[in-house]
Design goal:
single chain; about 180 residues; alpha+beta; Aminopeptidase; eight-stranded mixed sheet; globular; GNAT_dom; Ribosomal_N-acetyltransferase; Acyl_CoA_acyltransferase
Length: about 180
């Protein structure tokens, strides 16, 4: 899969992760709220670089497509990291795949996640529908109300509550679905 893919949403640029993102990743992961909702633990630039290399391997294998979400704030020349979106579990003949996302603390409340997820969703169906992709699944902990709001704004309908499965999933979860349009 081409790792030079870039996506656009209003005010956002989405591109594959690269080694230059490590410092911004470490900064984003200092946020306790982000750490609560994600399984990755990035304590330093070495951790962040390992994480970026995992994203690159996912692209190379054609099974996980992670995008850094960037925005250029007013009065600044360079874009800053404001989030992450990912498409995972894509395989030819498989009708579903999963999406995920997070937003950096400084960018929350600005509609970053719905805009980035919308761009990812469009790209996923445009790119993989011919391979059999029919629906996208969005999963989150049931107490993550912000993710429920992002799902609704992005056209992902609530499907059902998933029971907890400790230790990896200690709390119930929500499954939201988005189907490809005819």
């Amino acid at each position: 899969m081409n790792t030079t893919v870039t996506l656009h949403a209003p005010g956002l640029l989405l591109r594959p992760w690269c080694a230059d993102d490590t410092a911004a990743l470490v900064e984003a992961y200092r946020d306790p709220a982000l750490r609560r909702w994600t399984s990755a633990r990035l304590e330093d630039e070495a951790d962040a670089l390992r994480w970026v290399r995992e994203q690159e391997r996912g692209w190379a294998a054609g099974e996980r497509f992670g995008f850094a979400v960037l925005s250029t704030p007013p009065g600044r020349d360079a874009p800053e990291l404001v989030g992450n979106v990912v498409l995972k579990g894509v395989a030819a003949g498989r009708p579903s795949a999963e999406v995920g996302y997070w937003t950096a603390a400084r960018a929350r409340g600005r509609g970053v996640a719905p805009r980035a997820l919308g761009a990812l969703t469009t790209w996923a169906f445009d790119t993989f529908r011919a391979d059999g992709l029919e629906r996208l699944e969005l999963l989150h902990q049931s107490d993550n109300e912000a993710s429920c709001a992002v799902a609704r704004k992005s056209g992902y309908a609530f499907a059902r509550t998933l029971p907890a499965a400790p230790p990896d999933y200690p709390l119930d979860g929500h499954l939201h679905l988005r189907r490809a349009t005819p």
